[in-house]
Amino acid sequence: MDFRALPSGPITLANVTVPAHLLGQAGDLTTTDLHIADGRLTDQPGTQVDMARAMVLPAFVDMHTHLDKGHIWPRASNPDGSFLGALSTVRADHANWSAEDLRARMTFSLRCAYAHGTRAVRTHLDSIPPQPQISWPVFSEIRAEWAGKIDLQAVCLIGCDGFSEDGPFRDTADLVAQHKGTLGMVSYPVPDLKDRLLGFFRMAEARGLAADFHVDETMDPGSETLRMIAETVLETGFTAPVTVGHCCSLSTQDEGRALNTLDLVAKAGINVVSLPMCNLYLQDRGPGTPRGRGVTLVHEMRDRGIPVAFASDNTRDPFYAYGDLDMLEVMRQATRIAHLDHSRADWCDAFAATPASACGFAAAGLAPGDPADLVIFKAREWTELYARPQHDRIVLRAGQAIDRTLPDYAELDPIVRPS
Q1: For residue 40, what are the β-bridge partners?
Q2: At what angle do helices 99-116 and 327-337 cross, to 10 degrees?
Q3: Which of 102, 328, 362, 410 has the smallest number of Cβ neighbours within 10 A?
């Protein structure tokens, strides 16, 4: 049950708490009134509702997910919690990824994201043949069905050792372009990575596609593919948006070397998305207590003007056993893991405005004229927001409170718990 029922028609959410920078003001949090009419924020007052300083944030953007892997844990759990355990388990489970299986699990995940207050999602899709011919058409159908509720984008996902300009990836790239997607790849140290990156960017440029990489998802300081990607972008003059995710090895590298790499990333205009929950789960896992968090250098990135976002990553699959595509959980955990508190006052952009800009989703904020796509919490300060799960939050889409009922896990039993 939401903590406050709102009347229909034009309304004024009086006495709400919002991040000051979203109103163009200095400082951290401030109180204000928000007016809503005809699905948008306006400067015209309506029926006044005293919100008792409830916090209001723009609806979330989750720019790095894996909807195709989501919720397979009951039938494909990670045997030891390791990265290699996750990789081998998912590859074995590909045999189950029929159109019906994908549709059920992806739709379930989107229902969760929508109920939690997310308005846009980018998902990676495993694209080792023959899977692309199944997954991409299903994705396009789901994208059309969810139009007006959640804006969707997709990125193909292969390992860099599976890339070749003359191999089957050419057909995959054509399929990605056909479905208006983004070209993606996992980068890790292979002897001819530079040649593969050059070919990858040629293929993306020829098709007018943006690029999105999984990068250095390891604690090995010798993994420096982020540096090579930045150098290649600068060398080629590639102008479409480039996003990199993870970048864990930066946290274990010599500081001077890591910061010099970030200077190159900033110069290349690359977007970064950090996935702290999944990285905390997988990285530095072994027979004892983990020493490393796996989080990348987000503060040093922001200091250089690099756009930084945070996202959910995996959900109840071998790469991450937990999660619910709840961006508030991502905000809470990112704040704790990466010490976003006692820092700058605009980190909330990393969960809405920054990923929207990086992906090309429609912008949204708290200014008159913006869509009234809002999430309202019974919390007056950040500590109150993050101390509780906020199950009674209110989600407004086009100014109307949505049904926030979450789907029952039992709905997936016929496909993820085979007899």
Answers
A1: 37, 371
A2: 70
A3: 410
